[in-house]
Specification:
Layout (H helix, E strand, L loop, with lengths): L13 H14 L5 E2 L11 H11 L14 H15 L9 E4 L2 H12 L5 E6 L3 H9 L3 E6 L15 H5 L1 E6 L12 H13 L3 E5 L23 H4 L6 E6 H4 L8 E5 L1 H14 L5 H12 L3 H23 L12 E5 L8 H12 L1 E2 L1 E2 L10 E5 L4 H14 L1
Parallel strand pairs: 1-10, 3-4, 3-5, 5-6, 6-7
Antiparallel strand pairs: 2-8, 7-8, 9-12, 11-12
């Protein structure tokens, strides 16, 4: 049996590889502490679950849900953006519900790229961004993001021949895996660059709320991470993807949305119409409750993540593994000590086999990720400290 060539670049990814290593460790009798996946262990708020539960008993929610049936959700998303960023949004033409933001970042290249066109991606970056380009038969130009540049790409380094064939750029800040935050000044530079070179500017924005303010300010519900639309308020070239997986702990419900340039929203809607309907209306009702209801749960999630960050980083420092303290996200991006600095895959494989602690190798996020490992802080502080104790024994 023969399959399409586009499957070849998708043969393996960082999550699938670590899943195999975790399975082997479990068979060998290890007690697993899984820090390899950014899947929150925290629950959604009660009012969100109640909105979904009430929908189950309403027969009108049981059928197919087409675009016009998502109006209430789109209005809630538009209002959320307007309140948070001061950006006027048209819910009819500038918002599109998604089955998680990953659906959007994977499908948009089908609407933008012709075979052979380049997409400019962060290196390291989230693997699904690469997968979407491969599925569209596009080419990837990795933009290295290095610690000495605050993990921001240098646009001047992009070769002119590549730029001439490029059609889109994908950014994502706060950044997975490096935890970096991009200032609004950088986004303005990115918007100007994409306008000059006729590029679609995509911003994946799942960690908008997971930004850690200093002590004394953690109770303020105000993101320090800018939206790309603040740099492109007229939405001339930009589209942004948001998911409720992180801020509202709704990862398993698969609910997100795209917001931005009306032509891009229309094009993505055409792709989506050929692939799926929307998800169950009850899930959208839960998302509406999340976006329009009390935000104390978001504040609590951010504070819990900050406490976990502090506990894990301090524990690493106590064993002599000095890593920067992340300003955002639910991860720690750690430069590997010797003799592991050139083989992050081997480090993570050996670590889970010998200790049961699973992490994600930096190489799985791109060539520039080699020499690093990503830990996801998805357990309570006691478990995280236990993980570090096991890491200490391994090292």
């Amino acid at each position: 049996m023969q399959f399409a060539k586009r499957l070849q670049p998708l043969q393996s990814n960082v999550f699938a590889d670590m899943d195999k290593a975790k399975a082997k460790a479990l068979v060998a009798g290890q007690q697993l502490i899984d820090l390899s996946l950014g899947s929150s262990d925290l629950p959604p708020e009660v009012h969100v679950l109640e909105a979904i539960a009430q929908s189950l008993h309403n027969p009108s929610t049981h059928g197919y849900l087409l675009f016009h049936g998502t109006r209430d959700f789109r209005q809630a998303a538009a209002s959320w953006y307007e309140q948070k960023f001061g950006i006027t949004v048209d819910p009819e033409t500038e918002v599109l519900p998604l089955i998680g933001s990953q659906e959007g970042t994977a499908h948009l290249p089908l609407a933008v790229l012709n075979p052979g066109d380049f997409a400019l991606l962060l290196d390291p970056g989230y693997p699904s961004h690469m997968g979407g380009v491969h599925l569209a038969s596009g080419q990837i130009y990795p933009m290295p993001i290095l610690a000495e540049n605050d993990f921001l790409p240098v646009f001047a380094d992009i070769p002119a021949p590549v730029l001439a064939q490029s059609r889109m750029m994908i950014l994502s800040y706060p950044h997975n895996p490096t935890t970096a935050i991009a200032p609004l000044s950088f986004f303005k530079e990115a918007v100007a660059f994409c306008q000059e070179h006729n590029l679609v500017l995509v911003h994946d924005f799942p960690y908008v709320d997971l930004v850690f303010q200093e002590s004394g300010n953690s109770g303020n519900y105000q993101s320090l991470a800018p939206s790309i639309l603040q740099a492109d308020p007229h939405k001339s070239v930009s589209i942004e993807f948001f998911t409720l997986s992180k801020s509202y702990n709704m990862g398993g419900f698969r609910i997100g949305y795209a917001i931005g340039n009306a032509e891009l929203i229309r094009a993505l809607r055409q792709i989506k119409a050929a692939v799926d309907f929307n998800q169950y209306r009850g899930i959208l009702n839960g998302a509406i409750a999340a976006l329009t209801g009390s935000q104390t749960g978001v504040i609590a999630t951010v504070e819990t993540s900050r406490q976990r960050r502090d506990a894990f980083v301090n524990a690493l420092h106590r064993i002599g593994w000095y890593v920067p303290t992340p300003k955002a996200t639910m991860y720690v991006w750690a430069k590997l000590p010797e003799p592991w600095s050139r083989d992050s895959v081997e480090f993570c494989t050996q670590l889970v086999q010998k200790t049961g602690v699973a992490a994600s190798p930096g190489a799985g996020f791109g060539k520039s990720g080699e020499g690093y490992v990503r830990f996801a802080l998805v357990h309570n502080t006691h478990v995280l400290q236990t993980a570090v104790e096991r890491i200490a024994e391994f090292l």
